[in-house]
Every structure is written in structure tokens, then in C-alpha cells.
Amino acid sequence: MTPTITVFANSPDRGRGLARDMPVRWALEEAGRAYEVRSVSFAEMKGAAHKARQPFGQIPAYEEERLTLFESGAIVLHIAGHCPALLPAEEAARARAMAWMFAALNTVEPPVFDYSLAGVLEKEKPWHDERRALLEARIHDRLGDLSRHLGEADWLEGAFSAGDLMMISVLRRLNSTGLLEAWPAIAAYVARGESRPAFTRAFDAQRALFTQSQAQQAQPLKESDTA
Amino acid sequence: MTPTITVFANSPDRGRGLARDMPVRWALEEAGRAYEVRSVSFAEMKGAAHKARQPFGQIPAYEEERLTLFESGAIVLHIAGHCPALLPAEEAARARAMAWMFAALNTVEPPVFDYSLAGVLEKEKPWHDERRALLEARIHDRLGDLSRHLGEADWLEGAFSAGDLMMISVLRRLNSTGLLEAWPAIAAYVARGESRPAFTRAFDAQRALFTQSQAQQAQPLKESDTA
Question: Which residue of A26, A67, B61, B84 pairs with B53 in a disulfide if CB–CB is 3.0 to 4.6 A?
């Protein structure tokens, strides 16, 4: 059965592919699986129908015949479990790939996400500059360790895995910040991920949905102009 | 082979069982597995030998014969994979348990951890009170959704799983904040986890290590007093 993912009707990242449906779309593309998309407005996202799928009223949610799933990490892991190119069958290699998924979401993402969030929610606060400097230092700590581990390798553990998919998804938030300029090996690693055909298909699909939602929002305005 | 976990020699939580070795110890106890403990000082934790085990220089690390693993989420998942009482064999139930593990670490923990961190690192900053209020609001949002999902159930998905183990491990950071008083079902859920015999064994083991490290630190001081 074709799974359905629930995503933002109108993503706050304006189609830059930074929302959490992106790693799920990417994993589905790597696994060669078709999927359906349901989009929700911000109001619908916090409503009872969506919270029955996603207890915290977030996107994405994932549905297949006998399973409703939430948390992008868990959804990617579920998809990867059926795709040896994302998650190796051998137990130790599989565990290492999972370690990088958790490292992406629980060690690298927190300061990166805080940095994005502070840029939006705390931009006008008197503490913004000082806190931004603290967060930049925390991010550089993580990037330094990651860069040392990566060395000159293409991927974190030999072959590309769901661990790279998740790590690159997190690091992409830094693309427009200038912080990756200090870490050329990491910038190249992110670009390597973004150049995968499956990434491109996933990116284009989320971008097309955003463009379409913008066009639809524009529609009623035009009509009222001529009414 | 008995696995070895690497933990703080002298945990900054002073034996309150809030460090990230606690969910790993708890999972090992639930699974009925013996383990060895290696403790590292803060300096050793950031040194090359430990970073070979744990690329970000954090605790815990986990070693068994052919596998070195990091990230408490990945370690708990690896242990749980061999223990049906922590991770059900049926695929959909297993995926749901994993969803709660990720929800614990990636949706509930970020504001909870930020709140703890701000209490330590930003206590003297002029922005502390205002930012603390923002973080409390974010935490209450999460707790409200979690409480609604939990309802009157004992555990998040029927039987106790690694999802509960991880969620309760995260929520325990709130025990001393007063924030759980607004959410009696969650406070009861945390207490239910803490009353499991496996939790108690894990807690006592980490506490004993802390007490012992304090005694050893006291030793040289005493000797120098009498030298």
C-alpha cells in the first residue's frame, strides 16, 4: 500500500526544504517508494484530527495500512528498515547507522535548531547578539568533532546510510548562515548529499507543493480584485 | 560478552541519575544484562581515547565484542532490540515504541534540556527571567499534548516499552522544577517508571559510583592535611 505523509500546506521555510517532511521524502525516494501527500494548514496541524495522527501537532505524520507513525527520525528508521541501501542488514553496521541518526537529531540539531529559532523568535530581544554568539560556539564545537570524524571520507560510516541522510538534513539548516565556511569538509559532505538524485526528487516535490500553495493563496485575492 | 559502558567519573548532576548513562543502565537492567563500567574524568572525556569511542566526547559510550556505540538513544535501541519486553517483535508496535523514543529525545527533551542548561549557564544573564518564561511555555505545550495522549493509561502504548523508558528519563529532569505539578497524570507516570525494580537498580548503581568518586576526591585532601 502506498503510504501517505502529512506535511505543511504552506511551509514556513518557503520551500527551502528545511521542514521535517524533507528527510522522510528523501528516504522514500532513496527506497524507491511512491507516496501520497496530505497537506495541513497551521490551524489544522493543531486540531484534533491531526493530533490523532501526531500527538504533538507537528508535521510530518506517516500512515500506511496498519501503522500511523510520527517523528521524522522514527519514520526514516521505519522506511530504512526495508531498504538495505539506507540501513545495512549486519547488526553492528546497522547500529552505527542508527547512532548517527540519533547524533544528528539529539547532539547536532539542538544548537542548530536553537540558532534558527533564536533568529526568528528572539531577533528583537536585547539578549539576541550575546546568545547568538553562545550558540555559534556550541555549533562550532559539534562541527569540529564531526569534521574530525568525517576526515576525507565521503560518508560517516563507509557507505551512505540513513545516518548520513539525517545528519545532512540537519546540517542543511546552516547552509545560509555562513557557519559552514569554517568547515570545508562538512560543506562538501552536505553538497554531496544534496547532489543525490533521490534528494533532488524529494526537494523538487516539496518545492512544487509550496509554489502551488502560494498560487492558491493568491487566487482568491485576484478574484476579489475583479469582483 | 559483557558490555562496557563509559560514564562520568564525577557526574555533574551529583548522583541524581540525570546523566545520559541512566537510560542505558536502566535498559540493561530491564533486559537482565550484566555490564561493566568505565568512568572518565571531564578531561578524559574530551581526550582522543574517548573520542575514538564517542566522536563528540560525551558520555555514555557502549562497547561489546564487535561494536562500539554512542548516543544513548541508539544504545537503548540496540539493547532493546534483544529484549521483547522493551521493544515488541511485531513491526507496527515496534515502530510506535521507536516513535516515542524519538519524541522523547527530539520533541520533549529540547525545551527541557534548554531549561536545565539556562539554569546553569545563563543564570546571571540579564535575560534569564524572560527566557525562562519562554522555555516554561514551550515545556507546558509539550506536557499538555503528552498528558492528553497518555490519558489514564499506565504507559504510552499499552505495555511498557523503550519509548516509556526514554520519555521518563527525559521527564525526570523536571522533577525538581515544580513544572510537573500542573500535570498530575505525567507526574504519576514518571513515578510509575521510577518504581520499577530495574530503574531502582540502575539508579543505585550510578549513585554508588558518584558517592565513591566523592570519597576518592576527599582522600588526597585528607592526606595532604596530615602530611
Answer: B61
Domains of chain A listed by start with CATH number: 4-84+198-221 (3.40.30.10), 91-195 (1.20.1050.10)
Contact A51 B148 (CB under 8 A): yes
Residue-wise pLDDT for A158-186, tens only, equals: 999 999 999 999 999 999 999 999 999 99
Q: Based on the number of CB atoms within 10 Å of its own CB, is B78 exposed (0-12), middle (13-18) or buried (19 or more)?
A: buried
Nearest CA distance, A15 vs chain B (angstrom): 23
Q: What share of chain A is helix, strand, coil (3-state, %, to 5)?
A: 60, 10, 30
Are A95 and B69 in contact (CB < 8 Å)? yes
| Residues of A with Cβ-Cβ distance to B56 under 8 angstroms | 103, 107, 142, 145-146
In terms of Cα–Cα distance, which of A25, A85, A19, A1 is closest to A58? A19
Q: Residue B101 and residue A75: Cα distance in Å, rounded? A: 12
CB B135 within 8 A of CB B111: yes
Instruction: Please report the pLDDT score of residue A221 as a whole number.
Output: 47
Best probe of the A interface among B51, B56, B68, B157, by most A CBs < 10 A, is B56
